[in-house]
Amino acid sequence: MLIRDIMRSPAIAISAETTLQDAYRTMRERGIRHLPVVEGEKLVGVVTDRDLRLATSALVPSPFSPDSRVSAVMSSAPLTADASDPVEDAARTMRELKIGCLPVLDDGRLIGIVTGLDLLDALMRLTGVHKPSGRLEVRLPDHPGELARLTSFVSHRDLNIHSILTYPEGPDSVRTVLRIGSIETGLLAEDLRRAGFDVLWPPEKPCPR
Amino acid sequence: MPSVIYAPAYRRYSFGDEHPFSPVRTDMVLDLLGALGHRVDTVEPEPATREDLLDVHQNAYVCRVEKLSAGALVPDGQEYGLGTQDTPSFPGMDEAARWLVGGTLHGARLISEGRETRVLQLGGGLHHARRSVASGFCIYNDLAIAINFLTRNGLKVAYLDIDVHHCDGVQEILNEDPRVLTVSLHESGKYLFPGTGEIRELGAGAGRGLKLNLPLEPFTEGASYLEVLEQVIPAALRHFRPDVLVVQAGADAHFDDPLSDLMLTTRDYEAIFRRILAWADDFTASRVLFTLGGGYSFRAAPRVWAILYLVLHDLHVARDLPESWRSKWSHTSENELPQTFHDPNPSHADIPNRYEIAHRNRQVAERLLDLARQYWFQK
Ligand SMILES: [Zn+2]
User: Fold this and answer.
1) Number of domains in chain B
2) B-chain residues within 8 Å CB-CB of A157?
3) Which residues, given as ranges, of chain A have pLDDT below 70?
4) What ipTM does this complex have?
5) Which of A124, A150, A177 lies at the terminal end of a domain, its last residue?
6) DSSP states along A114-170
């Protein structure tokens, strides 16, 4: 999954000459919190609703007036993303630097924007939670062939895997989270346990039938 | 006398002998009632028309069901949830599914025309079917079609879903409808298919605050179930003031059900059915339409639905199951069929953390009501 698959495009942008008041109105009307600031086609900054509220707050020693230009309060030279970046790279950048959005550039031209919410949407798509499904979590030994053993077990039952995520857990094991497109996920979990898989989810019944 | 709707053609809604959604379960109900000496008079409906389906389903979807039904190949069937492991295609599936829709629709018609108050449709309850996706054994959404029929005829509908799975299809179709209250009690989507039915869903647009979801902890027992039911349903009905109840009476919250993890007993079901009938008396001038639904234990589901029939007809639930019935259907289950109508007491091993489970369910019900009331008392 790449940035181009999740970005909002075209991005709503404003010019550096826009007043704080107008920028705030744009955010309110569009229901957004981040605005790229452009001069012509060139990206020159990003302004957030937090920037605006801080700049005009009565709590700061010399607040800006609503007529000031956004260029005075924006972050200049913002970090950007490329449409062909993997989403996880954007997530890492945003998390490490604690920023809420990345404008997406193509040849220096603003073509879109990715925010924290878009990354949450991406997470939902990656986990397959949009489709009617049951969730399965399995701990696998961290060596070759284990994941294949699990997925072939599922495919032998002709069940469709909507999503599969695997992440390292300890030195010797990985955890695999699957969403199975079947109402019979519970039976599958029982069968997997019987076949020796370490199924962590759904939890085992406390009393046998 | 309540009306019971059934047609032998319902039996054609069958995905094969190994599939859990088996018409044998209804055969067992009818046979059990007969063996107990009850004469079950059934009303035979007409199958629903194509037009009836198009009220909630998209034409492209219905076309694909029809093609598969006629034995044609549909290369993109999987995209519509058709021909999957859960919902395999079979010859005649379109007509078979239309029979079930027709039955539920007929029940709605009897009630809206004032010819009947209590109706039991011995089939249907296909609450997972989406506008254009088959899912979880469900092809056409008989419930949404019947509910729309009722609202078009000026009735406000309260839909109550006690199937162990969330009614994602019904909710999707009626999500913005202000004339329909839906309440679903189900095992939490964290643990069980289809994964939805969180308390925050609540509906959209004009329907906001009217789609209530009560996700329950795995291994929830009857006492806790009845407690949260009592917490939520009367409050919701008092607010909404429906004209009719539509109840999807799935039997898969029974502890013996192979597909899920709630722990209801037949006695709990009897208590639930009695409460629902009392609410119908209090809130909807006794107008209530029951359908069947999920319920995959041959040892449990037939008894649950026979109890529904008996309670609906103010008949006594016998102590023992007839020996003739037990031997006739013994092949349906690996374990012996029970000897008594009701589950023994205690019916299953102790649930170690039952108080914690009950506590969490209570809190979820409170949070649900808090969230919903924000919308109820907005205007
Ligand atoms: Zn169910």
Assistant:
1) 1
2) 85
3) 206-209
4) 0.79
5) A124
6) EEHHHHHHHHHHHHTTTSS-EEEEEEEESSTTHHHHHHHHHHTTT--EEEEEEEE-S
